[in-house]
Amino acid sequence: MSTNMTIYLRYWRQSGPKAKGYFEDRTLSTVNEHMSFLEMLDVLNEELQLEGKEPVEFDYDCREGICGSCNLVINGQAHGPKKGTACCQLHMRNYSDGDHITIEPPRASAFPVIKDLVVDRSAFDRIIEAGGYVSVKTGSAQDANAIPIQKNDADLAFDYAACIGCGACVAACPNASASLFTSAKISHLSHLPQGNVERSNRVLAMVEQMEGEGFGDCSNFGECEAVCPKEISIAAIADMRRDYARAVIQG
Amino acid sequence: MITLDAKIPDGPLEKKWSRHKKEMKLVAPNNRRKYEIIIVGTGLAGGAAAASMAEMGYKVKSFCIQDSARRAHSIAAQGGINAAKNYPNDGDSVWRLFYDTIKGGDYRSREANVYRLAEVSNNIIDQAVAQGVPFAREYSGLLANRSFGGAQVSRTFYARGQTGQQLLLGAYQAMMRQVELGRIEYYTRHEMFEVVLIDGKARGIITRDLVTGEICQHEADAVILATGGYGNVFYLSTNAKNSNVTAAWRAHKKGALFANPSFVQVHPTCIPVSGDYQSKLTLMSESLRNDGRVWVPRKKGDDRHPNDIPEDERLYYLEEKYPSFGNLVPRDVASRNAKLVCDRGLGIGGTGLAVYLDFRDAIAHDGKDVISAKYGNLFDMYANIAGEDPYTRPMRIFPAVHYTMGGLWVDYNLMTNIPGLFAAGEANFSDHGANRLGASALMQGLSDGYFVLPSTIGNYLADLKPDTRYGTDHEAFDIAAKKAQETIDRLLNINGKRTIIDFHRTLGRIVWDKIGISRTKEGLKEAIADIRSLRDEFWTNVYVPGEKNNYNKYLEFAGRVADFFELAELMAMDALNRNESCGCHLREEFQTEEGEAIRNDKDYSYVSAWEFKNRNGVLEEALHKEELNFEFVELKQRSYK
Amino acid sequence: MPTIIKALKSQVGRKLMTGITGIALMLFLVVHLAGNYAIFASAEAFNIYTKKLESLGILLYMAEAGLLFFVLYHSYLGISIWLGKRKARAVGYEVYKSRGGASRQNVASRSMILSGFTILVFLVVHIWSFKFGETEMIMYAGGEPMRDLRQLVIDSFTIWYIALGYIVVLSLIMLHLFHGAWSAFTSLGVTNKSNTQAFKLGAYIFTILLMLGFIFIPIYIFATGGMGSLIAY
Ligand SMILES: Cc1cc2nc3c(=O)[nH]c(=O)nc-3n(C[C@H](O)[C@H](O)[C@H](O)COP(=O)(O)OP(=O)(O)OC[C@H]3O[C@@H](n4cnc5c(N)ncnc54)[C@H](O)[C@@H]3O)c2cc1C
Ligand code: HEM
Ligand code: SF4
Ligand code: FES
Q1: Which of C93, C97, C187 sits opposite A241 (nearest CB)?
Q2: 3 state DSSP class of A234
């Protein structure tokens, strides 16, 4: 059926937030094409443990491309080479025997390393905290069908709402900007009548928070869209700027 | 001595909840900030509860394992959420949703709870839409519905294949708003280890900060566990990797009863295991069975390309056995038969643990375009994971553990038998009986979190004096913290030869083989023996790497696997006790010759609630029975022939 | 509500201003190009055009000051955005690779700072030579004496290294605009999912036409040694 591949791995090691990091190399000779990328790392970790060494830490949970926990930068690409695919859904059949793979954590000052390949993305939570919601009290909602919403608007809102908060956009951006993440939430909500009411406050607050967290400027490189596992369009970023300008002008 | 009182309000079914709401004690709004509530878990149940209670004015402390509340396992739910809105005008009603759910649970759940669930289902949809959840819509701009899991009405609301994600993000955002307002203290990457009881009441928890390894003590007036299901006891399941039973199990060991642990749902259409390295299973919508035909080769070890196997050498086992339902038999029947044919050695693929789901005929009949329009996304997902093109080669599928109906025993107010300790969502046992209908877990989680707990918690708190603090230097906190620390130290000091995953995988195989899709008395007894000996080996031969005062995922896993060992034993005991087949629980001794389940309402119409006694080599548990009374529905046997 | 100043200092505000100043500078280039083509109109036209400009007096100064402000503001924004990168990513990647596909990372977008900086240096030289540089005076029938900029242009571009230098710099502006002309509209929130391709295409066409327009003059003058028949005498 399938034969084993040999993969030359090079991955980032850092024992703690303040520790100095370094690259470690290791050859894995039991890689199977049906393994997911993270399963390959599991195998690596099993080997390390059997030798009494510390396993490599990396983040994951669902392994279905939906929770947004995983966020490896693989050979310089956030989530690896496959379009619209989070690295937990990347399979080793995309690689060949003898490949060299370098794995780094997402690099951004706003995402400090916790250990090895695990970083702290709490900045994203704080951006949502600043305004990424609709202020509605539990139990006070009117009937769900009271406001019809054009199918197109609902679909567009969904496209933006699909963001899984993985941070690949930040990882891949040459400026380490969080514009795609932030604007995806802004656009999701502003395309719906329910979210439209708080539109101005939301965009001002979220933009301020995003900057305060230490993310970089956006130069419209569009790299974020290219790596986004949900393929969220940078049209969201354009929307965010228009909303921002409107909010400022309307005062 | 424990007496089980479900505290079901009197009166007609339709009035119970509204009357109960009226009669419950309230905490005055200006007093609410004097009460602290700990909510462990930020899934649909925990997230919704945290947002709602903080908004009411309570001081909430929220905990989750992941680095953000938004990543709770609820995010992965795909299909949809039920509600009795009857927007399509196809005759749905609260009663019908109630009835379908209680029947679907094979009459092993409480009427009053299920009715309440159906009743608040509509408010959930209203709430979600108001939060900006982008449900699918018709061209009219109104919400779309589809029928799900064999229901005769279209009552499932959905957001593409990401309903759980969108609902969870709604709850998460509502929660983050409260964090911003300072009403929620938000602890991510924290794992709960112990519940702290003072004077018999839940008064706090012990957690481990997963980044620094610090053992922390948190005090509160009430503790809510919304920590999800325990499907990962099987090692391979559709659950997220961090899903666990630890919080519920540690509460159980402190005295909370664990109900119906053997009720586990298996989903028939998952992508099969490809090798030992496999870390989880991926679910594919069971709608695939509408057009796909399930078969295996008649000949053992037939390794021809499936398309080369002629029609008369294929065994369409579902169609043969169940001529009227064919491939559309219920989840448990489909799962069980897949296992049966594989046990007979007819399974396909490298592992022999898979069957074909073939679209050849459907494509020939309807055309590739029609099939692709219906299932395009699923086919793509399959192609990506399995590396095969389902348009030209039959899919390989196999059942996988998906949902756990069992959980902490709770009364009508969702409080466990420990005062002040509540359980919500998949972590409790409350609403699904012996089997859960599709699209009703999301409904239950949100119902518990948005609508039930915020009312019932007041009833409990109103009896407590506000602003009563014992201080985390109270002896009960010290003892609990020490216990947590000891477990960690013990694990780290074993320094054995086998890895944690190795143990977990082996445990999973035992549980799958013997406490899985179908069970026998002998098998269950073997399982108990196997589990015990494996557990003993675990405690002497596991290798737990790393340090305790640092981020250490394997240390986390070690603790969870240790709890799974104990839970697994209880599952076997529970399955052994229940001498009947009901819902997802099939005891081979209790089936007709045609393989139909024989339910025994006379002797087993109860909830088995287990009380932890001791674990000294063997697990000792006492069984308490909560009899189920059916006043409003008539019990019927299922038949799908 | 933030004050306008605060808004202008914010990340999004800065980006909006990069777009606005970028578009303003592009518009200026269009006008500039139109003026340049006066050189082909008649012997006097170019000098009369420049003279006219100069005679606008205070208005011209204001326009020039405005232009200068735009250039400086734009450069300041560009440079500060570029400097911000280091802060936002203190530790870089050992391996970095664009994913391609939807990405707009290319030579143009990656070298905005280089192309921009070269433009800045060039502008100094350019203004120095054409605005404050020494020129012969010329008098047309019935008029007053004026600077013979037309001759200066012709003389300059017949020298190969000046012509080449201009062509190189103009190519860099072209590169700048390959990304910039689309990017500016995205910065202003004008582009969306359905029109962004159109904007991209439009940006390329606009940039190429603009730059062919500019480059044609030095090439033509150099190729014909300043004696080409298109240049009106
Ligand atoms: C693949 C898949 C698809 C599904 N599709 C559907 C569907 O279409 N419709 C439907 O109705 N249901 C579906 N379900 C079921 C449904 O998703 C779950 O039952 C439901 O989401 C559970 O929600 P919850 O809030 O109870 O728990 P979870 O969402 O599991 O949340 C558990 C929370 O508890 C935290 N936690 C756990 N242990 C600890 C601890 N020790 N300390 C601190 N925190 C802890 C976790 O961090 C997390 O925040 C699906 C399930 C799966 C696996
Ligand atoms: C004729 C002169 C110029 C024109 C027509 C011009 C035009 C543009 C345009 C249209 C953009 C895109 C704006 C956006 O993305 O919003 C841009 C960006 C940029 N310009 Fe210029 N520019 C000129 C001069 C300069 C100069 C002198 C500099 C000096 C450093 C400069 C540096 C930059 C930089 C760095 C960017 C990218 C900004 C970013 O990363 O977001 N430009 N320019
Ligand atoms: S926008 Fe895309 S890349 Fe960025 S966090 Fe969301 S899903 Fe990840
Ligand atoms: S692990 Fe959940 S998205 Fe990859």
Answers
A1: C187
A2: coil
Q: Token digits for B273?
A: 């295991």
Angle formed by the axes of helices C196-223 and C149-158, nearest 10°: 90
DSSP H/E element including A40: helix A37-50
The DSSP code sequence of B452-518 is IHHHHHHHHHTTSPTT----TTSHHHHHHHHHHHHHHHHHHHH--SEEHHHHHHHHHHHHHHHSSSS
Whether residue A162 is contained in a domain is answered as yes
Q: Residue A232's domain is classified under what CATH number?
A: 1.10.1060.10
Q: What domain range is C138 assigned to?
A: 4-86+105-223
Contact between A136 and B174 using a beta-carbon 8 Å cutoff? yes
Asked whether the beta carbons of residue C15 and residue A81 sit closer than 8 angstroms, the reply is: no
Enclosing domain of residue A18: 5-104
C226 dihedral zone (left: phi>0; alpha: psi -120 to 50; beta): left
B158-190 pLDDT per residue, tens: 998 899 999 999 999 999 999 999 999 999 999
Confidence check: pLDDT of B516 > 60: yes
Q: Is B116 a catalytic residue?
A: no
Angle between helices A199-212 and A179-190 (to 10 degrees): 170
Domain count, chain A: 2
Calpha distance A93→B287 (Å, rounded): 28
**Residue C99 included in any domain:** no
Express as a percent the part of chain B with pLDDT over 70.
99
Provide the phi-psi class of B272: left if phi over 0, else alpha when psi is between -120 and 50, else beta: beta
Average pLDDT, chain B: 95
pLDDT (tens digit per residue) in C133-143 = 777 777 776 66
Question: Is the residue at A245 inside a domain?
Answer: yes
Confidence of residue A41 (pLDDT cuts 50, 70, 90): very high
The number of CA neighbours under 13 Å toward the Cβ of C147 is 17
CB < 8 Å to C89, chain A: 107-109, 175-176, 216
Q: Do residues A98 and A164 both lie within one domain?
A: no
Amino acid identity of B387?
Answer: G
Ligand 3 pocket check for A88: Cβ under 6 Å: no
State the pLDDT confidence band at C233, using cuts at 50, 70 and 90: low
Please give the pLDDT value at position B254.
Answer: 97
Domain count, chain C: 1
Domain-located, residue C97: no
- Cβ of A69 within 8 Å of Cβ of B71? The answer is yes
State the pLDDT at residue B551. Answer: 98
- Please enumerate in sequence order all residues whose Cβ is within 8 A of that of B102, keeping only pairs 6 or more positions apart, or say none: B109, B111, B114, B433, B633
